[in-house]
Amino acid sequence: MGKADNILQTLGDFTSKENWDSFFTIRGHGDAFEWYAEWPQLKDPLISHLPSLSKTTSPQILVPGCGNSSLSEQLYDAGFRCITNIDFSKVAISDMLRRNVRERPDMRWRVMDMTSMQFTNDTFEAVVDKGGLDALMEPEVGSKLGSQYLSEVKRVLKPGGKFICLTLAESHVLGLLFPKFRFGWKMSIHVIPQKPPSKPNFQTFMVVVEKDESTALHQIESSLNFSLLDSHGNQTRELVKTLENENIIRQKCSSGADLLLSLEDLQLGAKGDLQKLHQGRRIQFTLGGQGTSVFSYRAVLLDAREQSGSFSYECGVFIVPKTRAHEWLFSSEEGQWMVVESSKAARLIMILLDETQSGANMDAIQKDLSPLVKQLAPGENDSGSQIPFMTASDGIKERNCVFQGTSSLTGSIVVEDVIYEHVSNDASRIFPTGDLIFRRLIFQRTESLVQSEALLTRERLHETVSGQMDRKRSHSSSKSKNKGKKRLNKESSDQMKVYHCYLASSYHLGIISGFMLISQYLESVASARTTVNTVVIGLGAGLLPMFLRACMCFLHIEVVELDSTILKLARDYFDFTEDADLTVHIADGIQFVREFRNSGAKDSSAIVLDNGNSSHVKHRGDTKIDILIIDVDATDSSSGMTCPAADFVEEPFLLAVKDALSEQGIFIVNLVTRSPTINDMVVSRMKGVFNHLFSLQLEEEVNEVIFALPSEFCIKEDLFNESALQLEKLLNLKHPEIRQSIVDATKKIRCLK
């Protein structure tokens, strides 16, 4: 017995055919090995749940993983003659066959793997498992074998048939068993009496699952008397907790709650017939895993809301990288429907990648997904037609991380140099030689949102730049690009500098184009050799303030940034510098603006934190803000608005802005949202506060720049061309192409109020 006991020391050995062959050889012939409870305790509860015996027929019963237990012999002697026993141990089957061939001639014995049975569908009225599932469920191995086994049980059971599982009911076993038999099965759980007066370390339970004719969802019934199970404290508590949680899930599913289902749940009809398109159907579910694929995936199935017939694909797959899965476009229901519309697919299966697929390339993921998604295609899918895969790509060819750190206010921050796969003609014509390198500032809280993006050049190139520029390359919005995978050679960017005569972000040029709305005032200030008070809330890498300082010398620019770490990064990695007319305050932007509002006609000072220390910023009594730009991101973009933070478009702040602006002033907001509802809400609030409102929607970008004027009088639209020419003359730009891009943007500004 000593050697046999050693073989059973680890549950991992329970899945090894060789170990079981050795075990049964050591035990010898006729020495039955019983898992858990023995026949006197099992007899009554087990037989009460088996199909009834009749004079003419006996129910077909399968005993998988039979080993050399006497269970099937006891059932045979109790009148159940049609019993098939299977085990993958040839030693065990040979022993049992010799032991029963004369006394129980109708009993059948087969060497067979219980995870891959060689029986046709709907063969048995009952499957009786005594410890087989538990043996397959080694925690370190995972649930793959257990899942395969239970799928086989479901397949070979006849409608109305029962799976009777004798188990220790550990949480990892029930965690597979309960959801596997969730839709279209009736389930109950019972306790097996203990042999008096013994008190074994573990209690044996009997789970009974009946194959229902419908796909209804039933609560799990229980006949447990928990007061009698106190001696098995932890085991009982785990069972009770797992049972309660499962019944809560089943109740929520029955009430129509939007829960994550499995592919098996869907195939059982949990959300209707998958073979047919159902207009506007949306299902969240888990796909793969448990032996069916390398990875498990979080997925959403969406049937187009308008089944017009003008679809490019009957079924398509859209893969969202981990770094973009949190974005509103992919994480919200409204955003997902927008993706469906643009995909031109009658059914779209959206796959949201996470950390579990880390390290796998896209080819491997698509190969893993292909057999899974074919099961979700509408119709019989016998044509063999390929299901197209689409991805939310980031377009990056190479990358090099030059800084990675953490701020207590902003969280994880990355500065990286990248080379894009494609650069449009504008930038490549200005810098025609070699791959262009862009330096990007990224906050990990919104990984797909690039806060700032600058072009890097060697200083000698600054003197030889030439070419044409129609507009910024279409693929790169500083507030809309994500990260790639390949690495950029660090040496290629070590000796390079940020080129502040070029703005890589199209929305920055869009912000400047809005100055056209007050160009007459700007021209008068420039002629009088005075200054325009400009406040930019949100420093980022400092690219917009540096560009403005260079091209409009009459601007006095104050930048308000909440996080001192961002200022240090702007200086160290983006060549940001301050002077008498470009200063940075480490302060709360909303409080800063309110101080302007409260200053009135008297001198006042706003308390800010410069470099982390409390100080005062003096405002002249007659000082108002002429240009106020809001360019900050939201700490949580899951609400649907990526820029700005919600507080900057709330009515109290908007009123403070109106009071702080000069009569000729302009308020500019970089708005990033894919939700029409949120966009309409922001515009409605601003209309309620400001006298005039204008908008610039950037082509191929999510960004919309909103311009608000506090004055009652405003430039007429028929004078926009003249005002654009005024602005053009005020811009001192090294590249006339950039000036033209700004002027072109003025032609796209439209009046909202």
Automatic annotation (TrEMBL):
Concerning its family, UniProt says: Belongs to the methyltransferase superfamily.
What GO molecular functions are on record for this protein? S-adenosylmethionine-dependent methyltransferase activity
Which SUPFAM superfamilies has this protein been placed in? S-adenosyl-L-methionine-dependent methyltransferases
Gene Ontology biological process terms from the UniProt entry: methylation
Organism classification? Eukaryota, Viridiplantae, Streptophyta, Embryophyta, Tracheophyta
Report whether DNA repair shows up as a keyword of the record. Answer: no
Locations of Basic residues compositional bias?
A: 472-488
Q: Where is this region: Disordered?
A: 464-492
- Kindly indicate whether the keyword Methyltransferase belongs to this entry: yes
- Organism, by scientific name, is Cucurbita maxima (Pumpkin)
PANTHER family (alphabetical): EEF1A LYSINE AND N-TERMINAL METHYLTRANSFERASE (PTHR12176:SF78), SAM-DEPENDENT METHYLTRANSFERASE SUPERFAMILY PROTEIN (PTHR12176)
* Key words of the record: Methyltransferase, Multifunctional enzyme, Transferase
Name of protein: Methyltransferase-like protein 13 isoform X1
Task: Give all residue intervals belonging to the Methyltransferase type domain.
Answer: 64-165
